[in-house]
Design a protein that fits this description.
The chain is α+β, with helices and mostly antiparallel strands. It folds into two domains: about 240 residues, Hsp33 domain; about 50 residues, CBS domain Like (Alpha-Beta Complex). The chain is built from ten helices and 13 strands. β12 and β13 form a beta hairpin. The protein is globular and about 70 Å long. The model has no long low-confidence stretch (mean pLDDT about 95). The protein binds zinc ion.
Length: about 300
Amino acid sequence: MSNTIIAVDESGSYRLYLTITTEAVREAARIHGCTPLAAAALGRTLTGAGMMGLMLKSDTDRLTLQIKGDGPAEQILACADPAGHVKAYIADPAVDLPLKENGKLDVGGAVGQGSLTVIKDMGMKEPYVGRIELVSGEIAEDLTRYFTVSEQQPSSVALGVRFGADGEISAAGGMIIQVLPGASDECLTALEDMLFLMDSFTLLVQDAAAMEGPDKTKNLMDLIFGRLPEQFRPRVLEEKDIEWRCDCSRERMEAALVSIGKNDLMKIIEEDGQAELTCQFCRKSRHFDKNELISLLERAVS
Ligand SMILES: [Zn+2]
């Protein structure tokens, strides 16, 4: 069963991306050794980026979502592709703050004030770059503004990571509703009412995951959209999987070493006699001995 649904309603008024990303968020939190607060911030960003990756047109397109604020989390980065692969990074995985008054994790406090940047590499000379000022640092609201302001695409974004009594991640997911050109007013009003009356998205993800049947995302879609009149309910177009995957390799690290230039590479060879590079996304380290570094020198420019 796939964890992600792409759907459109019969009247062609909106497009829906709906996903349950519990596994990918758990993997990200485990790799980075996240506190619950860091896991929530990283998980929301990763889930949002994962859905945005599915919106890319060409197989080779790549999307990067960067949240940069003056809060203690500093920076959160997630990269995604159209196949649903995501990787993510948080500058301070140990970030911890008191719960908010409503008992929720203070993701907005961890992020602080700053900017949200989307970079889409579509194989052109220059990548597409869209940037907005953060609304709240809670990620979903920030993405909603990004779509509306930067892409002129009215959208509604919900993201959530939920923890069990044991402190472990029990459910994570995301939803993006995009209003399509020529949308029917009747449908949009029904959607607005539905969103207004909707329970906490994170709770709904947890409820859907606990329901019978293998297709948890379909459960979630029924829970959320079931109250709409029949003709405005989403019809599934495509199913995909959003999964954690890091695409780093020894070759890419070699290219990174080559790119620092002859002088700096020479310095590493003379001073350290070796190099140890760690991927910031999956934390995997790769070692380069002196001979390997010397052979890379030939490829470097001075
Ligand atoms: Zn990696």
